[in-house]
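Morning!

This is the sequence you dropped in the shared folder:
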Amino acid sequence: MKYIILASSLLVLTACQSPAVDSNTSAQNPNTNTEASQSQQAQYAMTVKHDKFSADVSSVSDGMGGYVLRIQPAGEAVIEKKIDAPVMKAEATDLNQDGYPEIVVFTQSVGSGSYGEVVAYSSQPSQSQGKSWTEASFPELSEKLSQGYMGHDSFAIKGNQLVREFKLYLDGDTNANPTGKTRQITYRLVDGEASRQFVVDKVVEF
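The structure's back. Tokens below.
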């Protein structure tokens, strides 16, 4: 009888000393730490929407000074592209008004120049995949349009056009203090030979 009581006491004591395991902790979910790490490394993350269309847009460091842009249209394949600069903004729109969306991503380099770039994808109907996506090319500034340019771009979607603005630098201006006018360049999206492309539609200075 004593042995039975002693054995029971030992079992109760062992149970009290054993730590409880929470089924919701990361120890039970090996993916939790990976997901948290990826979330912490995200340089940019946003869901963009246009009418009934939506897409998740994110950017993460590639560990080598660049970034990986990741676009996940809802219910479709992921689009990935290596980019040089961090993402500042992303938008979904229909620039050519064909009923199929575009995703436009604006990047800006790190440093005193803060040079802006555009990465855009345009969709069209596909019998096998619902929609197919191709990158739309964005032109470099021509020699004429780059006169007085030293970065610090701002971009916006206005109606069915993309608008780029930057201050003009005059001789003797410091990087932090341009004294020239503002140049505004309006682009429209057109069909090219191989893919869609942005072309300059109008240039004004004010």
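Headline: The chain has two helices and twelve strands.

More detail when I'm at my desk.
O.
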